[in-house]
TrEMBL record:
Annotated Methyltransferase domain residues: 43-130
Keywords: Methyltransferase, Ribonucleoprotein, Ribosomal protein, Transferase
Gene: prmA
Protein's UniProt name: Ribosomal protein L11 methyltransferase
GO BP, sorted A to Z: methylation
One Gene Ontology molecular-function label: protein-arginine N-methyltransferase activity
Length: 297
C-alpha cells in the first residue's frame, strides 16, 4: 500500500494553483455552494487546499471550519483568506480531515478530494471517517455534502496512440468533453458504480456487465468517466455537476468489433489506491454470437 503522502495528501502546491485556473471546476463548486449554503449556516471544508471552497461558503454568509493536513497549504490558505477579507468567518484547523470532528453541529460539508474513478485521493475514506466521528458526537442527523454523489462510468473507444510517429499505448487524461481529437466512441458510457455520500457505500468496485458496440472499429481503450453531482435542487428540478478529467486506459490486446458486438467487461479495484490498480483491474472478452443467440432465445 502506498503512503498517504503519495496518494493525494501532499500534492505539490503548483497543482493546487493550477486547479484555481480550471474555470469549469471553480464555477461549478461556486454555483453548488451558492445553491446550498445560506447565511448563518455552519460549513466544514474537508481537505481545504488553497481555501477557495471556504471562501465561497464564507461569501454566502456561513461560518466555516477549514481543515487541512498539509502545513504549506494551511499557510497559503491563511494568506489567501486574509487577502479576500473573510478570515474572520473562517476557522483554520491544521489537522488530518479524517480525524476532525467539529465542536458543534454543522449544516454542510464540502470535500473535493476527487480523482477519476475515485482513486488516488481520499474522498470516500475521509467522508466515511467524518460521518462516523460526527454521528458519535452529534447524533445521526448528517449535514448535507458537496458533492452529494459521484457516478462512475466506462465507455468503449478507439484511441489514437501516435506521438510524432511513435506508437505508445499509454493511459491518457482528457478534458471532459463529448468530442476529443484522436478518440472515436464505439458505444455509450455505462455506469458501473454510484456513491451517495450521505448513505452507506462500498469502498471498492466489483462489477461485471455487457456493453454493446454501436460503431465498428478497433476497441483498444476504455474511457473512464467520473461525474460528481455537486448539488441537487428538488425545487428547481435541476442539478449542478462537475466531471473529473476523463481517463483513457489502453487494452493490452485490442479487439476488432462490429456494430452489435457484445463485450463482457469486468472492473475490480479499491477506492483511494493507485491509478495502476484501476486499469489493472479491468478485463474484457467478446461474447460469442452463439451465446448471444442462446441468451435471447
Amino acid at each position: 500500500m502506498s503512503s498517504p503522502e503519495i496518494l493525494g495528501q501532499f500534492i505539490p502546491l503548483h497543482y493546487h494553483y493550477d486547479m484555481l485556473r480550471d474555470n469549469y471546476r471553480m464555477t461549478s463548486f461556486q454555483e453548488a455552494i451558492a445553491e446550498t449554503v445560506r447565511p448563518g449556516m455552519t460549513v466544514v471544508d474537508l481537505g481545504g487546499g488553497t481555501g477557495v471552497l471556504s471562501y465561497f461558503a464564507a461569501m454566502e454568509g456561513a461560518k466555516v471550519y477549514y481543515v487541512e493536513r498539509n502545513p504549506e497549504l494551511v499557510e497559503v490558505a491563511r494568506r489567501f483568506l486574509r487577502i479576500n477579507k473573510v478570515e474572520d468567518r473562517v476557522t483554520i484547523v491544521h489537522q488530518d480531515a479524517s480525524t476532525f470532528v467539529p465542536p458543534e453541529p454543522v449544516d454542510v460539508v464540502t470535500c473535493e478530494m476527487l480523482h477519476v474513478g475515485l482513486v488516488r485521493e481520499k474522498q470516500t475514506e475521509v467522508i466515511e471517517a467524518f460521518k462516523q466521528n460526527y454521528t458519535q458526537k452529534h447524533g445521526t442527523k448528517l449535514p448535507r455534502f458537496i458533492p452529494e454523489a459521484t457516478l462512475l462510468a466506462v465507455q468503449p473507444v478507439m484511441q489514437t496512440y501516435q506521438f510524432a510517429g511513435f506508437h505508445a499505448p499509454v493511459p491518457l487524461f482528457q478534458p471532459p468533453s463529448a468530442e476529443v481529437a484522436g478518440t472515436q466512441e464505439l458505444g455509450s458510457p455505462e455506469v458501473y458504480q454510484t456513491v451517495i455520500y450521505d448513505e452507506q457505500y462500498a469502498h471498492e468496485v466489483s462489477w461485471k456487465g455487457i456493453l454493446t458496440m454501436q460503431q465498428g472499429g478497433t476497441l483498444n481503450a476504455w474511457r473512464l468517466v467520473t461525474k460528481n453531482v455537486l448539488s441537487i435542487s428538488v425545487e428547481k428540478q435541476s442539478e449542478i455537476c462537475w466531471h473529473n478529467q476523463y481517463l483513457v486506459v489502453p487494452l493490452h490486446e485490442p479487439l476488432e468489433v462490429e456494430p452489435g458486438d457484445r463485450v463482457e467487461l469486468q472492473i475490480q479495484y479499491a477506492y483511494c489506491m493507485e491509478l495502476s490498480d484501476l486499469w489493472n483491474g479491468i478485463s474484457q472478452r467478446i461474447v460469442p454470437q452463439t451465446m448471444v443467440r442462446r441468451v435471447s432465445a
